[in-house]
Amino acid sequence: MSRRCSDRNRSRCEPETCDAHASHAAALITWFQVNGQAGDGATEFVQLLVEWATSVLVPPLDEVQLQEEIELWRRGEL
Predict the structure, then answer these.
(1) Which of 3, 4, 21, 38 is 20 to 30 A from 10 (CA-CA)?
(2) Could you tell me which InterPro entries the record lists for this protein (predicted)?
């Protein structure tokens, strides 16, 4: 799932990259809020994950932004 929208990374939580407010992700997010993590035999989780994954649109890779983030990471700023 996309990064969580928190104060720490709010500037990076753009509507096109974060599903926290997307209706198609609501059931999966709620599942995690209730259950915390998925274990063996979590069939409900798998069903919700598949439903969410089929609705996700992956934008093309922005190689310039990727390089900028790599540099920030290397400098310890990310």
Answers:
(1) 38
(2) DUF6300 (IPR046267)
